[in-house]
Each structure stands twice: as structure tokens, then as C-alpha cells.
């Protein structure tokens, strides 16, 4: 699924948060949104997901403006995972994942064998089989995050939109999630704070600053000492680690 944001702007009264952003994500591509806090990453992602109505511009999936799509059609086409999600209900992990199948069923039909198979596969991919019957309130922050990711996988969409999905995850599960994202055939847009993981696992990086896109391209082209100084306000050196992956070493805040 090809995703296009065209001259997109969005804001709150008195402040523009996303400013005239144009971005194209090719079908099957994984694009990482990076930038400091307040740069507009999450707001842009929510506009792309159809969760916020842009003040100007449009979002187009395979040539169709999603502003015309009802909520059910959006849920069949894309899955969105926010930074921190909670619920007052004491659902079990498997029930959280089953929420991803809601748009695939009529309101009169309960889960069938196909729904249960999708949920089981999603739980397995997120290392949650042993927690399937665990109540939500007994989960750690990382386990809750993985449960919501399982819900998004069970949704079985062509596009996957992730807002800081590594929050609360330990190192092992961060790597496993990014391996999953890298290997999927879905079109993925993911907002990330970890610059090294973004460069390692994303096909392309999009650097945002003050609500607009200031650089995009391969990790080595975007994560440069000059961009890190200008956008993140830090002095840093960019090189390769012993495995050949892009590595960023921070010296001090820029002065």
C-alpha cells in the first residue's frame, strides 16, 4: 500500500504543529520518523492514520483520500499503535489482541477459527503465548505494549503505523520488534527516538524539526554530525560499530 501525505498541516489554536509536510511511503517500505520531542512526529503519524483531520492538505492511500473512508474501512486498511495505551477493562491478553479482528466481523458474529488463528499467530510473534490468559492489570508496561502490538498484527492490515513502539520494552524485545518490522511486507511508518535502531532497521529516515521535514534518505545521509547539532542540539560523531551498523556517539550538548 502506497501512502502519500500532501502539503499536510495541522495544529491547535495559536500553534501550528505540522507544517506543510509532503511525504511518500512506497508500498512495502519501512520509513522511520525521527526528531526531538515536539518536532511533530506523533501529530503527523496521527494525521496519516486518519485520527486527526488536517487543517490543510490530504492523506492518500493507493490513490484514495482517507478523509472519505468510514472508520471500519480505515481499520481494515491500517493498524495504529500509540505510545502509551491503557484500558479500564480487565481484559486478558488474548482478548486485547482479538480487538484487532473487530473490523473483520459483522456486529452479529463472534470470533471464528480464522480470527483465533490470527490472534494466536500475533501472540506468538510477540512472545506472548504464555501470557494469553493474563489479565491486563497484572501486566508490566512492556507486556502491555507488546499486547497492543499483537492487536495491531492480528488486525492484518496493509499498513502499520507505530508511535514510539519501543517504549517500555527491554533490549531483547526492542530488537525482536524491529526485526519484525524490518521483515514484514506491510507498509510501515514508525516514530522512533532510538536513532541507531531507526537507521539499522528502516529503509529510509525522515527527520522532523519544528513541524516540518528537514531531511530524508538513508540513515547515513540523515544522521550526520551537522544534522544532529542543528536539530537535536548535541555534538556527536557518527560511525560504524564492529558489526557494521551505524552508530552515534554523543559528546556534549551543542553550545
Automatic annotation (TrEMBL):
Keyword Nucleotide-binding among UniProt keywords: yes
Keyword set includes ATP-binding: yes
Record-annotated ABC transporter domain positions: 3-235
Record-linked InterPro entries: AAA+_ATPase, ABC_transporter-like_ATP-bd, P-loop_NTPase
One GO molecular-function entry: ATP binding
Domain of life: Bacteria
Keyword terms, alphabetized: ATP-binding, Nucleotide-binding
Name of this chain's protein: ABC transporter ATP-binding protein
Species, as recorded: Lentzea rhizosphaerae
Upper classification of the organism: Bacteria, Bacillati, Actinomycetota, Actinomycetes, Pseudonocardiales
Amino acid at each position: 500500500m502506497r501512502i502519500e501525505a500532501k502539503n499536510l498541516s495541522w495544529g491547535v489554536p495559536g500553534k501550528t504543529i505540522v507544517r506543510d509536510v509532503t511525504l511518500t511511503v512506497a508500498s512495502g517500505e519501512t520509513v522511520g520518523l525521527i526528531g526531538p520531542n515536539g518536532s511533530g512526529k506523533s501529530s503527523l503519524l496521527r494525521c496519516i492514520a486518519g485520527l486527526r483531520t488536517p487543517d490543510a492538505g490530504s492523506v492518500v492511500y493507493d490513490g484514495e483520500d482517507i478523509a472519505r473512508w468510514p472508520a471500519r474501512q480505515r481499520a481494515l486498511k491500517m493498524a495504529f499503535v500509540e505510545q502509551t495505551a491503557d484500558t479500564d477493562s480487565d481484559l486478558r491478553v488474548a482478548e486485547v489482541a482479538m480487538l484487532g479482528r473487530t473490523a473483520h466481523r459483522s456486529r452479529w458474529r463472534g470470533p471464528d477459527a480464522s480470527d483465533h488463528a490470527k490472534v494466536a499467530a500475533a501472540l506468538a510473534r510477540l512472545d506472548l503465548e504464555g501470557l494469553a490468559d493474563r489479565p491486563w492489570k497484572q501486566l508490566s508496561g512492556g507486556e502491555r505494549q507488546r499486547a497492543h502490538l499483537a492487536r495491531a498484527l492480528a488486525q492484518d492490515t496493509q499498513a502499520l503505523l507505530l508511535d514510539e513502539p519501543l517504549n517500555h520494552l527491554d533490549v531483547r524485545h526492542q530488537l525482536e520488534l524491529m526485526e519484525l518490522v524490518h521483515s514484514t511486507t506491510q507498509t510501515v511508518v514508525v516514530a522512533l527516538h532510538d536513532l541507531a535502531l531507526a537507521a539499522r532497521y528502516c529503509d529510509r529516515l525522515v527527520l522532523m524539526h519544528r513541524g516540518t521535514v528537514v531531511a530524508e534518505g538513508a540513515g547515513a545521509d540523515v544522521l550526520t554530525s551537522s544534522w544532529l547539532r542543528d536539530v537535536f542540539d548535541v555534538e556527536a560523531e557518527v560511525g560504524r560499530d564492529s558489526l557494521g551498523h551505524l552508530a552515534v556517539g554523543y559528546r556534549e550538548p551543542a553550545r
